[in-house]
Design goal:
Length: 105
């Protein structure tokens, strides 16, 4: 599943003539393209879909959505250990080189 997930912009930079941001999704930080939201700034919340910020969101709505996603297990589904989950479901060992990197705070 690919959700549009809210996150907080923690850093903005120009990279190869493209405005990019580091966005924090409840402890998971990802690079996000800001091409569709040129006015977004550090501290703002945005909804991100497939690596693009697509809408600005107020903090209360963003935090409420993140909490709901977390309670439903959607955050782990989107950002969790997919290799480990797939191996466990198949009753197999994790493939070499797929050890998880802890990114949550």
């Amino acid at each position: 599943m690919c959700l549009a997930v809210p996150g907080k912009v923690i850093e903005v930079e120009d990279r190869d003539d493209t405005r990019m941001a580091k966005v924090d999704f409840g402890g998971v930080v990802k690079d996000v393209c800001l091409a569709y939201l040129p006015d977004i700034a550090v501290g703002d919340y945005t909804i991100v879909h497939v690596g693009f910020a697509i809408s600005k969101l107020d903090e209360a709505s963003a935090l409420e959505t993140l909490a709901l996603f977390e309670s439903l297990g959607i955050m782990d589904e989107e950002f969790g250990d997919q290799w480990g989950r797939a191996a466990a479901e198949a009753g197999a060992e994790r493939p070499a080189g797929t050890e998880p990197v802890e990114t949550r705070s």
